[in-house]
Amino acid sequence: MNILTAWLIPAVVMVVMFSMGLALHPNDFLEVVRKPRAFAAGLAAQMLILPVLGFLVAYLTDPDPRLAVGLVIIAACPGGPMSNLLTHLARADTALSISLTATTSLLSIFTIPLLVAAALALFIGREAGEISVADTVLGVSAMTLVPVSLGMGLALVRPHLAERIEPWARRGALILFIALVIGAIAIDWDRVVEHFPTVAPLVVLLNLAAMVAAYTLSQVTRLAPERAIAVTIECGIQNGSLAMFVGATLLGDDVMMLPGAAYGVLMFPTALAFIAWVVRRERAKQPSRPALEENP
Length: 296
What we know:
By secondary structure, this protein is mainly alpha-helical. 82% of the residues lie in helices and 0% in strands.
C-alpha cells in the first residue's frame, strides 16, 4: 500500500482540509467570546471526553492492540467539514460548529501526537520516545494547518471565488474520501475481512458514546437547542481521512488505519439517526421554553 499511504491518503487529507479552510473566516474564532458556554462545552466534549472514551472503549473491549491504537487515533482527530454541513442541514448553530472545527483542528496538531504516544505505550508497550512527537506534529501540521491556511487565505483575498468553489470543494472532498476508503478496502481486502467483525462494533460504540456524552454535557450546561445539536454533531462526526493518514502514513501500520476508515463510513448512519432524534427532541422543547443560553 505504498502509493496509498505515501500519496493518496495525504492528498485526500489536504483536499478535505483545504475545503474546510474555504468556509472559514478569522471571525469564526470569535465564537469563543460570543458564546463562551457553548464553545467551552463543545471543546471539552471534543478534546477531553472523546479521547477518554477512545481509551475506555479500547481498554474495556480489549481488541488487537493495533486496533486499540487506531480507536484512540480517530477519537483524537477533530471534526471535519461534514460536521459543519450536517449542522447546517439540521438548522442548528453552524457558526459554532465551524468555530469548534477550526479550533480543534489547530489544537489537534499538538494533541494527536501526545495521545498516539500514550496509546502506543499503553496498548503495544512501546516507549513514547520510540516515535518522534516532533515529526508527528510536523506531519499533522503539513496535512492540516497548511491547506486550511491556504483555503482561508483564498477566502480572504478572493472571497467571491472561494464562495463559488467551496460547495464543489466540499462535495469533491467527500467523494475523494469515499473513494479512498473503497480503495483501501479493495487493496487490503483480506485484512479488512479479518478485522471488520471486530472493528465495526467498536467504532459504532465509540460514535454513539461520543454523541451521548456530548448531548448530555449540553443538557447539563443548559445550552440552547440549536447549540446542543451543534455540539452533538461536532463530537460525533470525525475526520476519518486524517485518522487514516496518522495510522497508515505516519505510523506505517495498515491495521491502525482500519478504525479511522470504518468510522468514516459507519459514523453516518448512526450519527444521522441520533441527530434526527436529538433534533426532534430539541425542536419539541422550543415552543414551551425560551432559549436557555444568553443571546450572542
